[in-house]
Amino acid sequence: MIERVYLDxxxxxRLPPPEAWKKxxxxxxxxxxxxxxxxxxxxxxxxxxxxxxxxxxxxxVEDMFxxxxxxxxxxxxxxxxxxxxxxxxxxEAEYSPRQNNGSYIPSAFRELPTVIGRMPRQxxxxxxxxxxxxxxPYMEAMEEYHSSYKxxxxxFKNLITSAKNTSQASHRFTLRQRALHEGRIVPSDxxxxxxxxxxxxxxxxxxxxxxxxxxxVMTLPERMLILPNLEGIPQQxxxxxxxxxxxxxxxxxxNYMPLLRAA
Length: 263
Description:
With 263 residues, this protein is mainly alpha-helical.
């Protein structure tokens, strides 16, 4: 009876076809496409707080099981190939308040966009059939991570506002310089001197706010887990900074679909 339930569940979790696997006969039953039950599962490394690196584990799964040039099929209307979200810390019940003395921290942590990955459904199924689920991180670590994400989100909202205003101020300076060049403004015009000072004050105010927002983002606890690969970002133009940080702050999950498309 137990085996029957397992097989039914496995059929509902379709695995990639044999041509995707480096050694399909090692991992799946070629006659049924179901996972073999006696194969070792991949164990992910964790840091001293119990966190995995989500980018690393996606690459590990792909490298261990699949050909790099396999182009994962993608069809939003096909339930077998449509992308869905993998919670890297599973299962849901384990993180529920009922299982954690009423604390909502584990559940809130598990639902953060930075620990959820969007990937092909068949690839997602491999995580559940061929990897060992990570142990729950330490409670204090999850709480700090959750707080850091909320701080990062707030800092990003401030960054959007200040970057937008800074860009607008820069654009106004550019328009003024063009008007000077075309002779539509006389540099010694008293009215223009006042306007120039107002523009300078406007730019300084918002650039200072932008700089403070950048500093806040760059000094957040757990920044590298929540906003990786941001070295050198303070030197980039405001709209590029917003675009880069927004990749992590406005998504409901990390999108791994581009990584899993053949070059």
